[in-house]
Automatic annotation (TrEMBL):
Reactions accelerated catalytically: L-glutamine + H2O = L-glutamate + NH4(+); aldehydo-D-ribose 5-phosphate + D-glyceraldehyde 3-phosphate + L-glutamine = pyridoxal 5'-phosphate + L-glutamate + phosphate + 3 H2O + H(+)
Record bears the keyword Lyase: yes
Chain positions recorded as L-glutamine binding sites: G47, E48, S49, R108, I137, R138
Gene Ontology cellular component terms for the protein in this record: cytosol; glutaminase complex
Coiled-coil regions listed in the entry: none
Record-stated family: Belongs to the glutaminase PdxT/SNO family.
EC number, UniProt record: 4.3.3.6, 3.5.1.2
Protein name (Swiss-Prot/TrEMBL): Pyridoxal 5'-phosphate synthase subunit PdxT
GO biological process: L-glutamine catabolic process; pyridoxal phosphate biosynthetic process; pyridoxine metabolic process
GO molecular function: glutaminase activity; pyridoxal 5'-phosphate synthase (glutamine hydrolysing) activity
SUPFAM superfamilies: Class I glutamine amidotransferase-like
Length: 194
């Protein structure tokens, strides 16, 4: 059984641990470089990307994260995690770093005030069985995407999920829905990479 870590600096860590367990992998929290070194895959949770970025620097994890991503570690990021996987943020807070890995530019809090939080059915390529229930909370969207990355879900004319090799990112939060199909897709990516 593959071991999948959840980056436990800030955000909805518990929900991802539960969703991963539901998807049939062994889920563990990751807070230290030694813990990162021992996982077969990693989830970067939803939360606040500026906080996750600052804490990753403070915990000495940013360099090791970038290194493992460069070496092909499968990583799934939801919402703030999607922002952390973007090579570029359109409107970064000063000093806000990303891990990067996905050839895309994201816009934070993209859906605007009227739509700060909403839910919508979203069809995700690679997820069988019909649309997932997309929970969007101050969600980013993908402003532009490079040739290396592939859009796998759209909502309202914007790309809201992306895949690039062993990296997966969604602007929405499947971990809040009890539907583990997106985590199951990621678990398959982790198994394929092993
Ligand atoms: N708006 C948050 C950010 O920019 C993301 C929100 C979320 O993860 N639900 O990091």
């Amino acid at each position: 059984t593959p071991v999948v870590g959840v980056l436990a600096l800030q955000g909805d860590v518990r929900e991802h641990l539960a969703a991963l367990t539901g998807a049939g992998v062994r889920a563990v929290s990751v807070r230290r470089p030694e813990e990162l070194a021992s996982v077969d895959g990693l989830v970067i949770p939803g939360g606040e990307s500026t906080a996750i970025s600052k804490l990753a620097v403070a915990f000495g994890l940013l360099g090791p994260l970038r290194e493992r991503v460069r070496d092909g570690l499968p990583v799934y990021g939801s919402c703030a995690g999607m922002i952390m996987l973007a090579d570029k943020i359109l409107d970064p807070r000063s000093g806000q770093e990303t891990v990067g890995g996905i050839d895309m530019i994201v816009r934070r809090n993209a859906f605007g005030r009227q739509n700060e939080s909403f839910e919508a059915a979203v069809e995700v390529a690679g997820v069988p069985g019909g649309p997932v229930h997309g929970v969007f909370i101050r969600a980013p969207w993908v402003e532009s995407i490079g040739a290396a990355a592939e859009p796998v879900a759209e909502y309202g004319g914007h790309t809201v999920a992306v895949r690039q090799k062993s990296l997966l990112a969604t602007a929405f939060h499947p971990e809040l829905t009890g539907d583990h199909r997106v985590h199951a897709l990621f678990a398959d990516m982790v198994r394929a990479a092993r």
